[in-house]
Amino acid sequence: MRFILYFFILTLLACSSNGQQSLKPAAFNESIQKAGAQILDVRTADEYKSGHIKYSLQANWMNKAEFKDRTASLDKSKPVYIYCLSGGRSGAAADELRMQGYEVINLEGGISAWKANGIALEGVDLNAKQTSMESYIGQVNSHSLTLVDFGAEWCPP
Fold this sequence. Notes:
By secondary structure, this protein is an alpha/beta fold. The protein has helices spanning 2-17, 25-31, 45-49, 64-71, 88-99, 110-116, 133-141; strands spanning 21-23, 38-41, 57-58, 80-83, 104-107. Helices cover 41% and strands 11% of the residues. Helix 3 (45-49) links the parallel strand 2 (38-41) and strand 3.
């Protein structure tokens, strides 16, 4: 019984590490300050235009041909720092790049965590119209029945 428990714990630890490396936003930001850092944004072009990490290359993970073409010039001798909105797409893209022999470091929590930590982005339109929570609640409560559809280009229905 003791052997089975020991084997189970070792298996669990081995599967959970899976060669994946991720960094919290502050540590990720510190790491990418090194000269020649390869930073990869795997979001769509429109998402990239809404704000991105300085010097990042955009390669849409959802468009496999584009992703393959744009990542072909990455240097395997240097780590690739990768991110998306929340970590799902970049995690999948990181797995693909690791299978090709790259060392990949994922931004834990993606751009959402980056913003929550107050770290600056490039290309942010400060004049872009945003809906405030107060306005949203007012619109939702203005009718007895309201349908709200949340979506994004990269998240199909």
